Amino acid sequence: MKTTRRNFIKISGAALGTATLAGATFDWVSGSALNKVSPSALQAIRTPTYCEVCFWKCAGWVTKNDDGDIWKVEGHNDDPHCNGRLCPRGTGGVGMYYDKDRLKHPLIRVEENGKQIFRKATWPEAFRVIGDKMRTIAEKHGPECVALFTHGSGGKFLGHLLKAYGSPHITAPSFAQCRGPREVAFYATYGEGVLSPERTDIRDTKCLVLIGSHLGENMHNGQVQEMSQAIDKGATIITVDPRFSTAASKSKHWLPIKPATDMALLLAWMNVLISEGWYDKEYVEKNTYGFDQLKAHVQPFTPEWAYGITTIEPKAIRDTAREMANASPAVIVHPGRHVTWYGDDTQRLRAVAILNALLGSWGRRGGFYNPERISIPDFPHPPYPKSKKSYLDALDGKYSLATEVISNGICEMTTPSPERDCNIKGWIVNGTNLIHTLPDQEATLKAIEALEMLVVIDTMPMEITGYADVVLPECTYLERYDAIRNSPHREPVLSLRMPAVKPKYNSKPGWWIAKQLGTEMGLEKYFPYKNIEEVLDWQLKQVGSSLEEMKKTGVKKFKREYDDLYFADSQEYEFNTNTGKIELYSTEMAAAGFDPLPQYTEHEQPPAGFYRLNYGRSPVHTFSRTANNPNLTDIMPENDLWVNPRVAKQWELKNGQYVWLKNQDGIVSDFSIKVRFTERIRWDSVYMVHGFGHGAKKLTRAFGKGASDTQMISNVKVDPVMGGTGMRSNFVTILLEKPNEKEVTS
Amino acid sequence: MRYAMAIDTKKCVGCSDCVIACQLENNVPVGYCREWVVESTNGTYPNLEMEFRSERCHHCANPPCVRCCPTGASHIEEGGVVLVTHEQCIGCGACIASCPYDARYPHPEGYVDKCTFCIHKVRKGEQPACVSVCPTQCLYFGDLDDPNSEVSKKIAIRKYKRLKTEAGTDPQLYFLI
Ligand code: SF4
Ligand code: SF4
Questions:
Q1: CATH 2.40.40.20 domain position(s) in chain A
Q2: What ipTM, to 2 d.p.?
Q3: Which of A367, A507, A511, B58 would staple A475 via disulfide (CB 3.0–4.6 Å)?
Q4: Going by CATH, does the domain composed of A611-735 fall within 3.40.50.2300?
């Protein structure tokens, strides 16, 4: 059999290596595969859901098989997040439900014969333990000393519980480890964020500029679909990336920039647009504040200046600026999503925001549209108690422009310090594996060490569960109701998630966990309903729908009420900034003591023998969340280390060989990673997909597969503006042998 | 009627959604696949080009697998779709060896399995699972004898290539380039 070719070139499709035809028993099968998929009564019943494999939350339908169990999930045709087509992770989302490694029962940490173990517990027992601990913390330190980390739909209900309990400390790593700098920069410039799903009008753009944003590898579904539509319509794509990404391969212009120098390119582009007079003069005049200051500021940043920094030739900088100007205003300089890179990220995203303003793309067709959503009232509940302390008090005015709670700030405030009177004492962690999410694992573990209570609510036995006092098994999205998905889009749109099947094992939905825990803690007046159906039906009725209707339709669209999708030329607009204008010169940044116009800062480059660690996404995985999903690991079971063949030669590597990594701080990877020779990467960097190298043995498919980028990220560049954790200033070298066990930091 | 598929390599991002949708739709066991994605890169940094191809059985008009099947399990159905009748298949593997595209696999239950163009869906007027799931809409399926089918229209206006035509198989996957 020709298995070698498949193993070598296929990036997907399971290897056939172990299947031997000769050894197969020739069982006669009754009914062919064709017959098996014939329609039946069960298959005709579809239940609506929205996907939880990533934050895009595509609406879909669940169909069952002849056994009455889940067969497949398909996209909802009327949903603008997915247009009837889920991404590979959403299609493989069924694997989350069928995964045999799921958390099955509540667990409580106990000590037996001097050894700590998890004891299987009942739900009431688990709630009692948590309730006791939370009461103690509230009495001893104040309820503010419990924090919630969440990155899942269940977080809505747990957040409500926490507010009822009296803590404002609800945080998601999606801010400070991901899109935070972007939101802060766009608020500073336009008085509005980019939001999620992003308001990029890609389907109608004439020119899409991607800066380190690898659409197509990150399957932000609607955007990938629209990028494809734009390709169909002949749009120009410009990709700035040191790696030849999938998007780069679809681009008319690929600018293979030297890593960590993007700011220089952005400044040079502004310089060209202004000095050549290619910017949208009318738009800038009418809508912006601070053009003269900007003009003077960027005057020295010529393409020739940028060439020495970025290695991008001046002609290429001018040509691409021309392309953008020609397409203006139907041009998008894409703000990206995971943008916590070098610690000056808010400033870099400010440069992106300014560039878009110069091109007149904000609020214009083919640029950025004005999204709209409807407002759904909360189910009535008594007012939340006022919290007396905030973690910000302990931060001395640092990160003053953060618009959400900073996860690493909470972590910092959990670690004991003589200077602070209040420390966080308890964490509730829902749907986010902090060990693989927060950089600087040592700091995370130190914080965890200091906790009086750690409760983890998850579907899978992720690393973080190993540190918990109590583990609560949440059921998967396919087995539960959740809050209505109410997303800002071209038209307001709602989507319903309802259970397709009963929860497997002894797992429970987040809403139920929050309500029971609330009752245990004497907060039942905040949960004045029997079940979530009552809440959803009441909320839907406030906006002219009902649970019954949504169960049938899954998705409901509403008419826009506030403004138009795009700005009208004749209209005057007031922006939600200090000056009421789009602020090229940011008065808010100036007032907070930050550069009001973005400056170029030089970043570290790798020392000899080391390579910059770049990391990114695979289309079949979401963070570390999917690393054990049977359907998705079938396509991609481990990550590999991209190495330029020139580098490989120096190290005398073989393609496919396993190596270990050591970073600039001497941290050695727990697990080895397979080398992949590829011309798609520069010689000064290596690349791997994030989310692998799991050390939790209970994740039977993921354990020990590939290496963890997070483990190598110990040099964190914190953004002074909003506390984001810049993660791309880490350098690794290659170890050919399994290092001495003692050297391995765990 | 002549069913065929066109694959727009300019739009495909190699995400493998087609592979997973196919596995679930057709109950392909984990560890096996009826289709797969090939990434092929040419050049040296930074002068590079790259192509993604979603590949499966080519439903050849002149299929060697059908010719060499001793039991007649491998056969051609309406629209030129090449199928295996699982009950008739003895799992000898002759067809696997004869396929120049490596498109067939031995099912653990003892028969040979491969892409069916989701004929069970097509008969109901639906699209194959890979076509209807593909987020970039880069797959086009239809009847080449109908000039108005999506696939005929694409082939009429776009440059395309077919794979290993020298094998004389007359393959029916058209890769738009
Ligand atoms: S983009 Fe993919 S994983 Fe994310 S919600 Fe949509 S289908 Fe699910
Ligand atoms: S689903 Fe579409 S874009 Fe993804 S690999 Fe398959 S053909 Fe390509």
A1: 611-735
A2: 0.96
A3: A507
A4: no
